[in-house]
């Protein structure tokens, strides 16, 4: 970042600043004329000086200027004007005054809008520049820089800087020229009044900035305190599990309370000094009118200053304090923003950034990292000054599989990070062929080297998004978009230094991994996931996924076909009792009462859970069907039974999960409702009836077995189903997608669309047997790959928290494999897996990376026999051992086509 804020602003916005400044200068003549018009209205029209010699008319728009005697005197004639009467002159001058008010307002509007746009463009540029530097943080800097503080800087702390950028040059010029114009006008009317105004201005500009210096120091302290507060809150959130485990709630509350008190104290000091300075500034601003009234009135009584001039002077001074005050505020803002900018540049200091070594041409970027890997005099020091590696050296011919055997030490992991270019904190040299590893362009490193560490990092999005992340290095094709919008986007990107590429462009390099298109890429991803041991998980994710039947029309039709085939399978194999299908004319005893009434899947929240009991349309439908009172009575029975069952049980007891009607925290509330009901049903409030109504809506007779549903009530619920559908259809409500045996339900997951019913709670192992039957039909109808593709759309959540540790590690490994690196470094990526699974995955990696290099950190040498080379670490030295009679890499079994697509380098 440029060290000087004003140099940064001028470098990137010089053209726009000059254009706005030119408009500011063009507005000054109109502003000056608007100051002189009040004098002309009072003297010429109202007091009649223009008609002093008995003339019935006077010139209007007579443009001339009388120079004051102390400037030499004389008259400058510009335009003779039009002859008008006294009333015409008054109206004409007043209209002219209004015209100049509109013109000056238009100038101010344009200037302010231009400043705002300029500031927003520069803010966009600055944020993008800072984010670009975030991408260049060295791995070592990332261990000390808090991500929350960096995000706070880019999001919040540069916001005031962006707001100031538009004012940096324009505001002092605009306000300064306005103040000078008003001051010159006062001087022209009376030099003594002008000198008085100048003296007060000089006092303001001398005292006020000095008093505000302490505000700068306090503002800097406030900014640091706020940033540290944000960082600490982020730390607590990231480590919230430790807080829960160790019951550290009170300590964390006290610690944050202490920080908030310190921040409050600083802000209190700022308010005290800020408003003292503001009061003093306002006093000085009101002091000048006192002198004008007193001294100007004295001059008017003596006849050396006419009334019109005095009115014009007072009017001109009324225009003087606002720009002066804003200029003082601008100076304060300048100092404050400079402090913020200095802190930003310190946070993004050059020593924290990776130098940009760009490839000389495209051919350099395509050079494979093969040949002799030679390390000389490698020295790595620990954080306490101890030597982890001292004078280490080795030579390996790549491609090769290399085991880095740690034996409990840190040297193996450190060397793995060096080879993967994840750290530069070492001395010595490592060369691959003729290339210095540390001098390779970052684009080459990202293309040719992959690293899988102990803590895989996944971004929010789908599994597919994370798997192809390494293939999105640059856009390879442009998606068609509306030309006007595209031109506007590109023009703004050029003006703000942002990238011209759109995220809607084609970013995935299919050719790089041997795929023809998106469908072929999915096939490769699914093959790798299956071989890594995640195929069943992706299948389950797919069954839980949803599709748009309009986009996937063929798949939706095949799912409906599979639904019928599954029903036939159940019937033929005597398994009909495993799943109770949805039938428009029958009550489904394995589903909730709410689901039986709606006979569909809620889309909006107002039809989900307990919100359904409060929904006006639904209540209207069951009122017409005469079900409300029956359901409220059922709710009373459920509440009474639950309070009896749960009485005395601690929160978290397994019964609360089994009977999911009432939470432990709600028991007391429903006990109060029951007491009110005991005094008479009429005492129940509408809120109580709504809460009671919500209970039976979640009731499943086959699961909860409270004996509350009989055949008659079930029939009435089925009858009310049509009334509910009729009411919702008339209201054009799109909150529920209704079931249709012959249609795909887009709101329901694939699993529910296949079953189109509910698994029985009354048959042992029903879910397992249904799952096997579904899998058989899916294979029979060749739906497996389509369902797994839907599974690739599964959202991983923030930092991949919706996946298990094993799933996160698997996704991370496939992400590394799919980009076909020349060198894959594994450092703790197998930690979530047991030894048997780790051995299987190691064998798979050795098979897939037959023509590439694999460096893997091993805790011991039990698995080292599978590698070509073993690196051991002893007394700071690196000892190279070749495995006895390793199988030649070229002689290993030739992988099939799918393996070559996933593993070979073209």
TrEMBL record:
Q: Name one GO molecular function term.
A: ATPase-coupled lipid transmembrane transporter activity
Q: Which CDD domains match?
A: ABC_6TM_exporters
One of its Pfam families is ABC_membrane
Which compartments is it annotated to reside in? Cell membrane
Could you tell me the keywords of this UniProt record? Membrane, Transmembrane, Transmembrane helix
Transmembrane annotation, as ranges = 16-33, 89-111, 164-186, 192-211, 283-301
Kindly indicate whether the keyword Membrane belongs to this entry. yes
The family database entries (InterPro entries) matched by this protein are listed as: ABC1_TM_dom (IPR011527), ABC1_TM_sf (IPR036640), ABC_transporter-like_ATP-bd (IPR003439), P-loop_NTPase (IPR027417), Type_1_exporter (IPR039421)
Start and end residues of each ABC transmembrane type-1 domain: 68-329
| Matches recorded under Gene3D superfamilies | ABC transporter type 1, transmembrane domain, P-loop containing nucleotide triphosphate hydrolases
Residue intervals of the ABC transporter domain: 626-900
* One Gene Ontology cellular component annotation held by this UniProt entry: plasma membrane
Q: Where is this region: Disordered?
A: 882-906
Indicate where this protein is primarily found.
membrane
Q: How does it sit in the membrane?
A: Multi-pass membrane protein
Report what the protein is called.
Answer: ABC-type multidrug transport system, ATPase and permease component
């Amino acid at each position: 970042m440029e060290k000087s804020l004003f140099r940064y602003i001028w470098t990137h916005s010089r053209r726009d600043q000059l254009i706005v400044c030119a408009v500011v200068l063009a507005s000054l003549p109109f502003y000056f004329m608007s100051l002189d018009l009040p004098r002309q209205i009072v003297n010429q029209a109202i007091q009649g000086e223009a008609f002093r010699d008995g003339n019935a008319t006077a010139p209007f728009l007579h443009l001339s200027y009388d120079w004051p005697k102390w400037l030499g005197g004389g008259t400058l004639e510009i335009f003779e004007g039009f002859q008008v009467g006294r009333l015409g002159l008054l109206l004409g001058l007043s209209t002219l005054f209004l015209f100049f008010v509109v013109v000056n307002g238009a100038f101010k509007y344009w200037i302010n809008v231009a400043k705002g746009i300029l500031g927003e463009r520069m803010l966009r540029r600055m944020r993008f520049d800072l984010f670009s530097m975030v991408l260049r943080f060295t791995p070592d800097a990332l261990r000390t820089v808090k991500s929350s503080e960096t995000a706070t800087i880019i999001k919040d702390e540069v916001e005031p800087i962006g707001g100031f950028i538009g004012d940096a040059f324009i505001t002092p010029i605009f306000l300064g020229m306005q103040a000078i114009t008003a001051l010159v006008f006062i001087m022209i009317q009376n030099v003594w009044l002008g000198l008085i105004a100048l003296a007060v201005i000089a006092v303001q500009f001398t005292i006020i900035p000095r008093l505000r210096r302490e505000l700068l120091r306090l503002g800097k302290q406030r900014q640091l305190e706020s940033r540290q507060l944000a960082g600490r809150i982020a730390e607590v959130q990231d480590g919230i599990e430790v807080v829960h485990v160790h019951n550290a709630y009170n300590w964390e509350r006290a610690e944050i309370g202490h920080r908030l008190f310190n921040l409050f104290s600083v802000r209190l000091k700022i308010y005290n000094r800020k408003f003292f300075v503001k009061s003093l500034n306002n006093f000085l601003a009101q002091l000048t009118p006192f002198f004008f009234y007193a001294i100007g009135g004295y001059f008017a009584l003596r006849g050396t200053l006419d009334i019109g001039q005095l009115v014009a002077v007072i009017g001109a001074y009324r225009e003087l304090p606002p720009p002066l005050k804003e200029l003082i505020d601008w100076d304060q803002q300048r100092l404050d923003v400079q402090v913020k900018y200095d802190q930003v540049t310190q946070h993004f200091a050059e020593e924290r950034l990776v130098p940009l070594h760009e490839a000389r041409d495209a051919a350099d970027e395509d050079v494979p990292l093969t040949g002799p890997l030679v390390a000389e005099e490698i020295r790595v020091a620990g954080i306490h000054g101890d030597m982890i590696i001292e004078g280490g050296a080795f030579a390996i011919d790549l491609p090769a599989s290399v085991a880095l055997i740690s034996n409990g030490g840190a040297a193996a992991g450190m060397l793995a990070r060096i080879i993967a270019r994840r750290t530069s904190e070492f001395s010595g040299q490592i060369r691959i062929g003729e290339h210095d590893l540390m001098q390779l362009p970052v684009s080459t490193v990202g293309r040719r080297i992959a690293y899988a560490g102990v803590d895989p990092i996944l971004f929010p999005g789908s599994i597919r998004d994370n798997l192809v992340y390494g293939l999105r290095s640059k856009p390879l094709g442009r998606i068609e978009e509306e030309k006007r919008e595209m031109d506007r986007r590109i023009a703004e990107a050029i003006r703000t230094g942002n990238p011209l590429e759109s995220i809607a462009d084609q970013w995935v390099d299919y050719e790089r991994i041997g795929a023809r298109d998106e469908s072929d890429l999915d096939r490769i991803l699914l093959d790798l996931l299956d071989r890594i041991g995640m195929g069943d998980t992706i299948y389950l994710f797919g069954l839980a996924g949803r599709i748009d039947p309009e986009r996937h029309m063929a798949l939706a039709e095949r799912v409906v076909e599979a639904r019928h085939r599954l029903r036939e399978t159940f019937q033929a194999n005597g398994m009909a009792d495993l799943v109770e299908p949805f039938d428009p004319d029958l009550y489904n005893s394995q589903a909730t009462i709410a689901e039986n009434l709606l006979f569909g899947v809620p889309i909006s929240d107002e039809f989900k859970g307990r919100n359904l009991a409060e929904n006006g349309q639904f209540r209207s439908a069951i009122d017409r069907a005469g079900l409300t009172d029956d359901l409220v009575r059922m709710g009373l029975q459920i509440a009474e039974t639950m309070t009896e069952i749960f009485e005395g049980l601690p929160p978290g007891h397994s019964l609360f999960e089994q009977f999911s009607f009432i939470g432990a925290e709600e028991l007391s509330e429903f006990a109060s409702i029951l007491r009110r009901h005991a005094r008479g049903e009429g005492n129940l409030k509408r809120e109580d009836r709504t809460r009671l109504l919500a209970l039976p809506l979640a009731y499943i007779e086959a699961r909860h077995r409270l004996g509350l549903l009989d055949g008659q009530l079930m029939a009435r619920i089925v009858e009310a189903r049509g009334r509910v559908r009729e009411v919702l259809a008339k209201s054009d409500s799109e909150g529920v997608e209704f079931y249709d045996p012959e249609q795909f339900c887009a709101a329901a997951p694939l699993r529910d669309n296949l079953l189109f019913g509910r698994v029985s709670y009354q048959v042992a192992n029903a879910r397992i047997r249904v799952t096997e039957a579904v899998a058989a039909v899916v294979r029979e109808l060749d739906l497996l790959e389509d369902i797994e593709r839907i599974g690739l759309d599964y959202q991983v959540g923030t930092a991949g928290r919706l996946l298990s540790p094993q799933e996160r590690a698997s996704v991370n490994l496939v992400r590394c494999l799919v980009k076909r690196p020349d060198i894959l470094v594994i450092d703790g990526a197998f930690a979530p897996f047991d030894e048997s699974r780790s051995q299987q995955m190691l064998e798979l990696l050795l098979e897939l990376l037959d023509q590439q290099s694999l460096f893997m950190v091993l805790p011991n040498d039990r698995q080292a026999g599978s590698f070509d080379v073993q690196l051991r670490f002893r007394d700071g030295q690196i000892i190279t051992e070749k495995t006895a009679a390793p199988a030649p890499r070229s002689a290993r079994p030739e992988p099939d086509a799918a393996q070559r697509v996933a593993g070979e380098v073209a």
